[in-house]
């Protein structure tokens, strides 16, 4: 550091106030003071004018986005702010989030500038053709076909005992747990008891296996693999499983444990007590290394053995028909999802006659928002509301915040750890070329912030629909208060869509939908999965980036994620079924 910048020691400070200083020419000191005095107000005036200008411009653009006449008429849960000062449905830039994390009041310079540019771009694009690859997968996607239904073994006898599981989480976590339990039953030569579902204070759904999946079909389809029964034998039902050491919790089996651990640790308990009950069992079996025949069984369970009950299939068929139109053609995917209710192909039907639609899974419910520890521009009201939710539903996370220094909201966003808000999602869709007239099916229950939060999407894409707008109250009534069954309807609508966009690649729902589309799509069902870290690095330039550059960078990002490749090592086969255990390659 230069000497002039070093604070003078106390003796020098004293010398500075000595009569030597008074000997300076008074006129010279007065001129210096006047110059400094004039600089301050002039600088303050310029700075104040700039701030006022940006404030007025942002207010004007944001007020246009909030135009009630442009909003769709469907019901979404609304979380109104407590004070007008916090009404805000856009994301802040990283600098603003960083300021908010330090307790400073955020400048309301939101993504409204990009949203306004998107509106102009969509208006201009209406007369131009869409990008050629928007509704298509790369050509080499057609080289893969489903084949996990093929078997080259005999059914296990299941003589070593009985496997019970009580799966936790929502329908998607439960589905993964079911197929892992099937695989463990085969590995240990055990008989599987139809799985039970634990009640969750997040999902608030009492549905059991038979309320969602066809039990008899499940048992019959897998009879060549394992033995399955609906109930534990009477002589074992009175056993105190905890007392005899047959209860196995998630803490007893590490996450993604290898098959060898089950043989070493679980098989002795099974042989001794004749029954083992897994509690939870979420993601408790590794993907690699695992014998290929067990991996194939996992695929067979997920893509073939689990069929929705007729009630869900019938209503799902109504959804798809109203989205695609009556002239929609049948497909292997629809046959699997809808069974006897799938629309049969009309010989005179032309595929172009069917209405195309894009499905978007907005994983922006309050549980996801609260768990992410991210900030979404709602000020202290938002922070207090989400913390109160965490204390009830994620108490461990709340306690961790008090004792551990966690990453800041700004850091989480820059690393792509935050769920995409509706504003970010709509900017992505506009940038990659979906026209304003595109029919968009929104999956996801109660969007945090409700219609206020959805204003950006509804203004840029007014043809929004949900299961609540497509189905009548009487058609929805059998599913009320059953979130897992409602999620099954969303699953069907998303899997059958002409294009599917996920906003959180880590979401179990989006992962399962993506895998289903890969497995049954025949290379005709593209999935849009953004790299959130790279997208965040683009969105942070909201204040300066021009639309052409934004559009170009987002399209390049999405194009790279649509490339076809085999399942990476240790990645989920439910999400990446393009591998020799699940699918077979065909020669072009």
TrEMBL record:
Localization per Swiss-Prot or TrEMBL: Membrane
Pfam families (UniProt xref): O-FucT (PF10250)
GO cellular component, one term: membrane
Membrane topology according to the record: Single-pass membrane protein
Single Gene Ontology MF annotation: glycosyltransferase activity
Membrane spanning residue stretches: 6-24, 44-62
GO biological process terms, semicolon-separated: fucose metabolic process
PANTHER family membership: O-FUCOSYLTRANSFERASE 2, O-FUCOSYLTRANSFERASE 2-RELATED
Family, as annotated: Belongs to the glycosyltransferase GT106 family.
Protein name: O-fucosyltransferase family protein
């Amino acid at each position: 550091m230069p000497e002039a910048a070093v604070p003078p020691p106390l003796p020098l400070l004293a010398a500075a106030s000595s009569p030597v200083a008074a000997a300076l020419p008074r006129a010279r000191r007065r001129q210096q003071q006047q110059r400094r005095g004039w600089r301050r107000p002039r600088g303050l005036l310029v700075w104040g004018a700039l701030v006022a200008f940006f404030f007025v411009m942002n207010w004007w653009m944001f007020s246009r986005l909030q135009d009630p006449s442009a909003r769709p008429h469907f019901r979404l849960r609304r979380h109104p702010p407590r004070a007008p000062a916090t009404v805000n449905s856009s994301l802040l830039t990283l600098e603003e989030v960083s300021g908010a994390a330090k307790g400073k009041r955020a400048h309301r310079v939101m993504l409204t500038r990009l949203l306004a540019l998107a509106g102009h771009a969509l208006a201009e694009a209406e007369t131009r053709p869409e990008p050629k690859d928007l509704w298509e997968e790369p050509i080499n996607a057609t080289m893969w076909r489903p084949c996990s239904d093929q078997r080259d073994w005999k059914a296990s006898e299941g003589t070593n005992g009985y496997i019970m599981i009580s799966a936790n989480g929502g329908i998607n976590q439960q589905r993964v747990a079911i197929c892992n339990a099937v695989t463990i039953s085969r590995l240990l030569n055990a008989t599987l008891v139809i799985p039970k579902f634990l009640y969750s204070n997040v999902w608030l759904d009492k549905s059991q296996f038979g309320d969602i999946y066809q039990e008899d079909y499940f048992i019959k389809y897998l009879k060549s693999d394992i033995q399955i029964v609906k109930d534990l034998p009477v002589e074992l039902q009175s056993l105190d499983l905890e007392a005899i050491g047959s209860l196995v919790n998630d803490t007893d089996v590490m996450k993604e444990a290898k098959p060898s651990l089950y043989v070493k640790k679980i098989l002795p308990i099974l042989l001794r007590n004749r029954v083992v009950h897994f509690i939870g069992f979420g993601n408790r079996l590794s993907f690699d290394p695992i014998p290929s025949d067990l991996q194939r069984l996992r695929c067979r369970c997920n893509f073939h053995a689990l069929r929705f009950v007729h009630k869900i299939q019938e209503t799902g068929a109504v959804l798809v028909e109203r989205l695609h139109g009556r002239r929609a053609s049948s497909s292997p995917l629809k046959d699997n999802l809808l069974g006897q209710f799938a629309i049969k192909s009309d010989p005179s039907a032309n595929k172009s006659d069917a209405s195309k639609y894009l499905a978007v899974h907005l994983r922006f419910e309050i549980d996801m928002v609260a768990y992410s520890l991210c900030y979404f521009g709602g000020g202290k009201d938002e922070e207090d509301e989400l913390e109160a939710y965490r204390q009830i539903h994620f108490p461990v996370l709340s306690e961790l915040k008090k004792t551990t220094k966690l990453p800041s909201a700004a850091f989480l966003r820059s690393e792509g750890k935050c769920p995409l808000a509706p504003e970010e999602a709509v900017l992505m869709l506009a940038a990659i070329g979906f026209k304003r007239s595109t029919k968009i099916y929104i999956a996801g229950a109660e969007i945090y912030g409700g219609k206020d939060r959805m204003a950006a999407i509804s203004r840029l894409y007014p043809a929004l629909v949900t299961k609540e707008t497509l189905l009548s109250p009487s058609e929805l009534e059998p599913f009320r208060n059953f979130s897992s069954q409602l999620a099954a309807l969303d699953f069907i609508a998303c899997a059958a869509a002409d294009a599917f966009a996920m906003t959180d690649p880590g979401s179990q729902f989006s992962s399962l939908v993506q895998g289903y589309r890969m497995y049954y799509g025949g290379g005709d069902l593209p999935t849009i999965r953004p790299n959130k870290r790279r997208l965040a690095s683009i969105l942070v330039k909201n204040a300066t980036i021009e639309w052409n550059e934004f559009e170009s960078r987002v399209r390049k990002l999405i194009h790279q994620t649509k490339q076809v490749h085999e399942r990476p090592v240790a990645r989920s086969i439910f999400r990446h079924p393009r591998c020799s255990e699940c699918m077979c390659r065909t020669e072009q």
